[in-house]
Amino acid sequence: MNYRYYGNCVDWPSYDVYRDGGLNDMIYSLNEISRRHFLRQVDTDEVHELEESLGYASHPKNGLTMSADCHVQYFSSHLHGERVYGFVWSGIEYVFVKPYR
Fold first, then answer.
1. Nearest C-alpha neighbor of 44 from the set 92, 89, 7, 96
2. Three-state SS sequence of 10-75
3. Are 3 and 99 in contact (CB under 8 A)?
4. Are the C-beta atoms of 42 and 35 separated by less than 8 Å?
5. For FRET with 13, which of 19, 37, 92, 97 sits at 20 to 30 Å CA-CA?
6. Strands 92-97 and 4-8, how do they pair?
7. Tell me: the pLDDT tens digits for 14-42?
8. pTM of model > 0.85
9. What is the tally of structural domains in the chain?
10. Where in the sequence is the domain holding 93, given as residue range(s)?
11. What is the number of alpha carbons within 13 Å of residue 39 lying toward its C-beta?
C-alpha cells in the first residue's frame, strides 16, 4: 500500500496548522530519509507528476532532475499519530499519507 499525496503546507487547512499533532508538530518531528527509501513508500506516479509541475526534467539529458537536486530533503514524520512521508522543496513540505481503505 503506497502512500498517496495529501497536500503541501501552503494549502494546508488553517485549523490544522497549530492543532496538536497537526502540521507544525509534523514539521518539528521530521526525520530525514533517503530518496530511495521515500520512493519505496509512496505512489511514484504522483511523485513524477509533482516533479514535472515543479519544473524538473524527466531525464538528466533534458536538465535538472529532482533526484539530482541536492536541496530537496526527503522525510518521514507523524501527522495526528499516523506515519507520513514527504519532501521539502523550496521550504515547502509536500506530504504523503496512508490511503484510507
1. 96
2. HHCCHHHCCCCCCHHHHHHCCEEECHHHHHHHECHHHHHHHHHHCCCCCCHHHCCCHHHCCCCEEE
3. yes
4. no
5. 37
6. antiparallel
7. 999 999 999 999 999 999 999 999 999 99
8. yes
9. 1
10. 4-97
11. 10
What's the grid cell of residue 4? 498517496
Rounded average pLDDT over 35-59: 97
Enter the C-alpha cell of residue 79.
501527522
Is residue 80 a contact partner of residue 21, using CB atoms and an 8 Å limit?
Answer: yes
Q: Which three cell numbers stand for residue 81?
A: 499519530
The residue type of 70 is C
Q: What is the pLDDT of residue 13?
A: 96
pLDDT on residue 66: 97
